[in-house]
Design goal:
The structure is a homodimer. By secondary structure, chain A is α/β, with parallel strands linked by helices. Chain A has 13 helices and 12 strands. The first copy, chain A, folds into 2 domains: 124 residues, NAD(P)-binding Rossmann-like Domain (Rossmann fold, 3-Layer(aba) Sandwich); 216 residues, Rossmann fold. Chain A is 37% helix and 15% strand. The longest helix of chain A is centred in the last third of the chain and has 19 residues. The radius of gyration of chain A is 20 Å and the shape is globular. The N and C termini of chain A lie far apart (44 Å). The mean pLDDT of chain A is 93. At the A-B interface, helix 8, helix 9 and helix 10 of A face helix 8, helix 9 and helix 10 of B.
């Protein structure tokens, strides 16, 4: 995972668009040097940046064959469909990749490696299948051990799933590193794991072991970092994913929460990655209150900053919305991709500074 | 599952004691007609009732061989160790049972059927392995559909795990049936599934699908019942199991909560079924507030009754504690096993009556 020699073709057939191809876009934004092409025959001839705003001139191509000339050696499934199965139309492409002896990287709930036909094809052609959602072989229950680490632990929470929690945390990590702070990124979802090269897809872990799985990652990361940034998942108000959210919250035992929101979204995304089919979104205040309250059942945490995803809002309105939210919440709020993550990083450094001061006096 | 022809030997070697052998005791209380013996060599010659207070004269024996004369044809694993693996000392007994062509019923997290050696032994001797925790093959995410059913849905919640949620719900089911109410019991844990003959062990379900798995059970049960009683798991304050608890709450979308508590317990049970190794237990008021608040993130619910497990408290003190709690909470509170579940059943019937009246006027 994440080895620089990887030359990735991202499979996003029929879905290479903003808000649809979350995994593809994550890779393009944070590991563009590893990506040689995106496959979506609807847009062959275009570029990544033209389609989704990131990835520069990385070409969009129509077939797997077209990526061969570009030196691809890895096929990466670039979407996360609800339900988590391989769309039937993509199966031939996966088979072709394995027949070429490539590595196939998948974050689908249904493990490709458990498909006897795909597994056999991989074996006979020297291909490999990497199911990044596959839970660790050894799992234990959470015991709030992450509350004991010296590092400052921060978790991204939000008003919905798919609002930019992973992105916020990755941007904050970069900003902290620029300030000389040793900041770890703990990946908890498929895209994060593909970017980080490690992590656990907590939503695939048996529910008894969700908090235990994240606890172990946080404790390990805390050993050699000043700040541990945990990728969040879902929201407590979401009828599909609230269990994952609470398991993360009680497993990582953060002191600090980053409240994430997709500006303009008004309804929860249910049953798909669309944002317009569910009950009303919780307000920022309601989301903050819910997550702080739920955290306190095991270990108190406070929202120290807000991260807005404003990609589809004009800039002046986006800036104004961040300012309004900062005023209302009493914490810094910004779009870390658009306006920089320094203010968010500084809120964590300030909290850490107060802790350290408190300890030494 | 639950077929009357079963003749069960319960394996509880080294653990046949109150609070340790939860599964064994559940079977002995609710399906004694199916149990021919309990295996615990420490107490061979004793009876179930003498050891754990239920199961009458069902004998405790020291070996699997001793159960053969009693006509056993099923070996049922009678404990649920934290971590969920088969204690090594029990493996020979499981092997013996399979070699006799018996059925082995297990609720362990580690599936016996996935053990190549045990699976092979079963195949070659005509034995069968039933892993009741194995998640359904087909899973979907929860979409709050259980909030739409006509039946009254009630969920048992509590101050900790292992406080008597399943028992409370089973006693309420019996009481409702005595009143002519069609009441379903939806099992969500291994023991409940063994008793009911169906259900889903939600803690073994990948966390993304916890709410979806319980939603489907509730919707199905609601089709031909007036009241759907859902077995609860864990508590929102528990660092190991809160994710399971919230998934159940948001998947079953109850209107009514039954607040369960083991009288006298002061600390959360962490890492084992013991009750003395964790942080302080939430108060009844705190547990009520947390569960009502968390329910409201998806669908509002209220605590309508309290169920105390008072087995290790003298009767006058137990009665007084129930009365005090009823006064403090403003809802009926009793020990349904010791003092009867009618008052709890009546609180549900009253809520259902108010609903029905509300609809027709």
């Amino acid at each position: 995972m994440g080895a620089p020699s990887r030359r990735i073709a991202i499979l996003a057939e029929g879905h290479f668009a903003p808000m649809e191809a979350k995994t593809a876009i994550g890779l393009l934004r944070y590991r563009p040097e590893q990506v040689v092409a995106v496959i979506d025959s609807r847009h062959a001839g275009s570029t990544a940046k033209a389609r989704v705003g990131v990835g520069g001139t990385i070409p969009v191509v129509g077939t797997l064959d077209a990526t061969v000339a570009l030196g691809a050696d890895t096929l990466l499934i670039g979407i996360a469909p609800a339900g988590g199965r391989l769309p039937p139309a993509w199966r031939p492409l996966v088979e072709q990749a394995l027949e070429r002896g490539w590595r196939v990287v998948s974050g689908l709930h249904t493990f490709l490696g458990d498909d006897p036909e795909l597994a056999a094809r991989a074996r006979s052609h020297g291909g490999t299948i990497e199911d990044v959602r596959r839970p660790p072989a050894s799992l234990g229950v959470g015991l709030a051990r992450a509350a004991q680490v010296d590092a400052l632990v921060a978790l991204a929470v939000g008003t919905d799933c798919n609002v930019g929690k992973m992105t916020a945390v990755l941007e904050i990590q970069r900003a902290l590193e620029r300030h000389g702070v040793r900041a770890a990124f703990v990946a908890t979802g498929q895209t994060g794991i593909m970017i980080a090269g490690s992590g656990v897809a907590v939503d695939a872990v048996p529910s008894d072991f969700v908090s235990g799985a994240i606890e172990r990652l946080v404790v390990d990361a805390a050993a050699d970092h000043d700040v541990v940034l945990v990728e969040g998942q879902g929201t407590l108000h979401h009828p599909s994913f609230s269990a994952v959210t609470l398991g993360l919250l009680h497993g990582s035992c953060p002191e600090a929460l980053i409240l994430c929101h997709h500006l303009g979204r008004t309804r929860l995304a249910l049953g798909s990655d669309r944002d317009d089919d569910g009950p009303p979104l919780p307000s920022l205040a309601a989301a903050r209150e819910a997550h702080e309250r739920a955290a306190a059942w095991v270990r108190p945490a406070i929202v120290v900053a807000g991260a807005f995803n404003t990609w589809d809002t004009p800039e002046p309105a986006a800036r104004a919305a961040c300012e309004d939210a900062a005023e209302a919440l009493g914490v810094p709020v910004t779009d870390p991709v658009r306006f920089g993550a320094d203010v968010l990083a500084e809120s964590l450094m300030a909290l850490r500074g107060r802790r350290t001061t408190g300890r030494t006096t």
